[in-house]
Design goal:
about 350 residues; alpha/beta; 10-stranded mixed β-sheet; two-stranded parallel sheet; 11 helices; about 20% strand
């Protein structure tokens, strides 16, 4: 059986006859959130039977989810082979209504998706790294996370959402499938999620950043920096042995970015390790000449970790120093602290299957 979500519309058009049936199938899957081929009532019965015998479009099932007080939702999905990955729905802005109950402004969401089962990067602060890399997710398995979450939360197909490839795995270590997912998600006949609403977060694979840039897909780029010296970054992120900070920044400088956008630099702040004003000063120097935005992230403690969550006042001092020296900087508001917040934590904790 073949996963239909792995197909672009063009590929599906070459498979189905007549070709216009592909567009109909796409509409049922991505716009009408069909559960099965029998729902596709404008397709001939013979075609529906043929599709059922040869294809599927439910490569993942949700085996557990946890809802935080802040309304973020952590999902644990299981693939056909039993592999498990996590995704997160992050409410960014609540829905606003008029006095008569009409919608004034729609709610806004970001979905954080996984690109691999496990990860080979070996970052010392990351729970996902414990088991190493098991396998890449296919484009369709990446898409299935978004489709399932939109459907589960009754988010209409036309409602624009933001996608961040920042869950389990290194997206650029699965470049082919991630970029295919980006293209399928952007298709107007599918979920129609513009590449400008899709952010690829990487630990800094310089050569892959270059390849992604050469594709010129229009996606946004986020770099997991986390340290301002090669010594500390190598301790935190072994990939730094192959791609040192200077190499990563050189690749970023060549990356095509929309003039209205910035390259995001994710900086995981760890108490007494990379949270000093001297670190802030060095970071300003490193980012000189790059249209950058720094996102300071509180380290989320998990069992067995040697690292600690930083003090709020140190985060604020760090942010203010960057602001005062011309670098756009925000402190990411931690979500899901009352649930399995750290990547891989829900997977580690889950032993039961929920329906």
């Amino acid at each position: 059986m073949i996963n239909l979500l792995d197909f672009t519309l063009e590929e599906l058009s070459e498979t189905l006859n007549p070709k216009f049936r592909a567009k109909q199938v796409f509409e049922w899957i991505y716009k009408k959130y069909a559960d099965n081929f029998e729902d596709m009532t404008n397709l001939p019965k013979s075609l529906r039977e043929n599709l059922s015998e040869n294809y599927f479009f439910n490569p993942l099932k949700c085996v557990r989810y946890e809802i935080s007080k802040d309304k973020s939702i952590k999902y644990l999905f299981e693939a056909k082979d039993g592999s498990r990955v996590e995704s997160v729905l992050l409410p960014m802005k609540e829905e606003l209504t008029h006095e008569d109950g009409g919608v004034k402004k729609n709610a806004r969401y970001t979905i954080c998706v996984s690109s691999q089962v496990g990860c080979r990067m070996g970052c010392s602060f990351c729970l996902t790294a414990k088991g190493g890399l098991i396998r890449n997710l296919s484009a369709g398995e990446i898409i299935a996370q978004i489709l399932w979450i939109k459907k589960h939360n009754k988010i209409p197909h036309e409602r624009r959402i933001n996608i961040v490839y920042m869950g389990m795995g290194e997206p650029l270590d699965n470049l082919e499938n991630v970029t295919k997912a980006i293209k399928i998600l952007a298709d107007h006949d599918g979920l129609d999620i513009s590449p400008r609403r899709q952010t690829v977060s990487t630990s800094g694979l310089g050569s892959q950043i270059k390849k992604l840039g050469e594709m010129n897909l229009g996606v946004l780029l986020a770099i997991s920096l986390h340290a301002v010296t090669n010594e500390l970054r190598t301790r935190l992120m072994p990939i730094n042995k192959a791609y040192k900070i200077e190499d990563v920044l050189d690749a970023v400088r060549e990356f095509p970015i929309d003039m209205r956008k910035r390259v995001m630099f994710e900086y995981l702040v760890i108490k007494d390790l990379n949270d000093s004003l001297n670190d802030a000063k060095t970071l300003v120097k490193l980012l000189h000449g790059i249209k950058a935005k720094v996102n300071l992230i509180y380290f989320n403690p998990h069992e067995g970790s040697e690292f600690k969550r930083p003090q709020t006042q140190d985060m604020i001092k760090f942010r203010d120093y960057l602001h005062d020296h011309g670098v756009t900087c925000t402190i990411r508001q931690s979500k899901g602290l009352d649930i399995s917040a750290a990547c891989g934590q829900l997977k580690e904790r889950s032993k039961e299957i929920i329906k």
